[in-house]
Design a protein that fits this description.
The protein has 13 helices and 13 strands. By secondary structure, the chain is of the alpha/beta class. A seven-stranded mixed beta sheet has the order 2-8-7-6-5-3-4, sandwiched between helices. A four-stranded antiparallel beta sheet has the order 9-10-13-12, with no helix packed on it. Strands 1-11 form a two-stranded parallel sheet. Helix 7 (137-150) packs across helix 8 (172-185).
Length: 378
């Protein structure tokens, strides 16, 4: 179950158009130049795409300051997750939950044993606090041992930061501890940074900076989410060249079509676009949290987030009625019942422009007014 299934929503609610808050995509569309690059790229659809995506990889190399030989691209981060797992064939994997379901699906596809690390709705906050509160070498050793025990027998650890669906992020101290522990026990890390570009400047530090001295680290980077290209599917993976050579054996050589390659290059070359998007989303996020607080929703809890989506916990009732009420209003939100390890009733909402967030606030208010009337009539 994933967000963004507009066809199914149209069938369910009998509505043609929706405000789609179920998928975590940048709502402001791709960089303007992408549209013209797609038109120019149309002449190339009569030829096979470059199987090595050299021009796109060079652009990624320049933009993200990584050697081109450490970069592989694919048909979205989803395809790359399966490609990586097919190449590694881990016997046992560790997955912090709740999280993106494709990690487990990919692991199960190669027969891996799966062990869960519970995070809950606060995401990485608990482990970040543990690191912040450690004050002496004894504490450090104890924390290392906690992670060694959690990862006992694992040869692959999935990490996601910023974390989907909680919007939390893994702080540097905690990540460096994980690098140290996993290297010691012989466990690789697959670090999904699909939402990294949404973070504010002060928190936006990529794990790619650690690749040169950590050959067991593999980093995923998506252009789908931030650059608003979900229909084109475009992702990349960064790793030591020897690991990429293994992954290449399991990759469809033509998985990145010519239009996706053109769009990816143009998107990355627009240097003003990222900050413009982050500023718009910052304003929308602040507006939404302020309006939510003013709404005094005593049966809802809005969890903190640093990115373009947030968890809302529905208290004292199931989330289904609220989801369908919003759906009938033409507002789609993500039902979180399919997220393993997220007990209770949660919905996830994407943060879009202020007009859209106002519509969501109005929809939430209308639901509780409707419930009150139903109770009165009953």
């Amino acid at each position: 179950m994933h967000g963004g299934n507009l066809r199914r929503a149209q069938e369910l609610y009998g509505i043609e158009s929706f405000i789609d808050l179920s998928a975590n995509i940048n709502p402001f569309g791709p960089p303007p130049g992408v549209w013209s690059s797609l038109q120019k790229g149309m002449r190339d659809i009569v030829n096979y795409p470059d199987p090595e995506s050299i021009a796109l990889r060079k652009t990624l190399s320049n933009h993200l300051d990584q050697p081109i030989e450490t970069i592989m691209v694919g048909n979205g981060a989803g395809e790359l997750i399966f490609t990586i797992v097919q190449g590694l064939k881990p016997k046992k994997v560790a997955i912090p939950i709740p999280t993106f379901s494709e990690y487990e699906r990919a692991a199960r596809s190669v027969g891996s044993e799966v062990c869960y690390i519970p995070l809950g709705p606060e995401g990485w906050a608990k482990f970040n606090r543990m690191d912040e509160e450690s004050e002496d070498p004894k504490d450090e050793g104890e924390l290392d041992q906690i992670w060694s025990d959690l990862l006992n027998g694992c040869d692959l650890l999935f990490l996601c930061s910023p974390h989907n669906p909680t919007g939390s992020f893994l702080k540097i101290n905690t990540f460096e501890r994980l690098l140290r522990v996993t290297k010691k026990i012989g466990c690789k890390i697959l670090f999904d940074e699909s939402f990294l570009d949404f973070l504010p400047d002060e928190y936006r530090k990529s794990s790619r900076d650690y690749l040169a001295v950590n050959e067991h680290l593999i980093v995923l980077y998506s252009l789908t989410k931030f650059y608003s290209l979900p229909g084109l599917r475009l992702g990349s993976v960064f790793a030591h060249h020897s690991l990429l050579a293994t992954f290449e054996q399991y990759r469809d050589p033509w998985s990145v079509n010519v239009l996706a390659q053109h769009a990816g290059i143009t998107a990355l070359e627009d240097l003003n676009y990222p900050e413009e998007v982050r500023e718009k989303l910052r304003e929308s996020r602040l507006y939404f949290y302020q309006e939510f607080a003013l709404g005094e929703f005593d049966k809802l809890k809005l969890w903190p987030t640093a990115v373009n989506f947030a968890l809302i916990e529905v208290l004292d009732q199931t989330s289904g009625e609220l989801i369908h009420h919003l759906g009938r209003l033409g507002i789609l939100v993500r039902d979180c019942t399919s997220f393993e390890g997220l007990s209770g009733n949660f919905i996830r909402v994407a943060i879009k422009d202020m007009f859209v967030m106002e519509r969501l606030i109005e929809g939430l208010k209308g639901f509780f007014v409707w419930q009150t009337k139903q109770g009165t009539l009953g």
